[in-house]
Amino acid sequence: MTTRLPNPFESHDLSGWPSATPGVRFPPSFGLERDGDVNLLFIAPVSAPMLRAALGLPDGDAAALLDHRGRAHAHVWGAPLPDGDLEFVHLGVAGTRPPPDLPSPLVSGPASLPAGCAAALSVQDGCHGVVLSRDPARISRCLRRFLDAYVEAAAGTSPRVPDVPGAALEGLLTTAPEGATCSPSLDMRPRFWVLDLAWRDAEGEELFVDRWVSEGADGRWRAGWRW
Fold first, then answer.
1. Structural domain contains residue 86
2. Tens digits of per-residue pLDDT, 68-112?
3. 123: domain range?
4. Is the Cβ–Cβ distance between 38 and 133 less than 8 Å?
5. Cα separation of 86 and 221, whole Å?
6. For the whole model, what pTM was predicted?
7. DSSP reduced 3-state for 184
8. Which of 79, 38, 85, 40 is nearest to 57 (CA)?
9. Residue 105: inside a domain
10. Is the separation of the CB atoms in 51 and 140 below 8 Å?
11. Could you tell me if 130 and 46 are in contact, meaning their C-beta atoms sit under 8 angstroms apart?
12. From start to end of the chain, where are the E strands?
């Protein structure tokens, strides 16, 4: 039996936020940055187990958990994770020991991640998270799962939701302005669904909107209105 991973939109609730969809009670957002050779994906709300699964790394690989003082403790990538704040680093093959100089918090020194590190997760208040990886494909996998989780929650009782296609996702990653944030919103019509991805700068001013359209729940997302 496959264990259902937590959908972060089912467990996070921002009181007073005027949600347009009952299944989404926390404003979704993501952003992309790069620090040296490390890609960073900022997302909220977050589920650490969901992101760990999306990264697709072997459960038996070595990892490290950083405590509140920045000290690294040996862990296993697939082992249970603590709730709340989290600094979690993949180290490579089983038996690899944590180096003494891991940055804490991880976003303070992404370039210092060890060479064998395929990815790392940083979560604050159990809700705001950052995925760090030198491999853009792993960032893409996490963003795809985040968008899938949002659409699943926003669609409510719909038995199916459109899958996020690789081509549309790659286009999104290529054109994403560094330092900007994106807020997805879903509009379900009888004959088609629209997923708007509104980009805003650091001051909150709207830059542009990427629009994906699907032929309803049984279709697939495409950029623009053609299918």
1. yes
2. 888 899 999 999 998 888 999 999 998 899 988 888 889 999 988
3. 29-136
4. yes
5. 33
6. 0.91
7. strand
8. 79
9. yes
10. no
11. no
12. 29-35, 38-44, 62-66, 72-76, 86-92, 120-124, 128-133, 181-188, 193-200, 206-214, 222-223
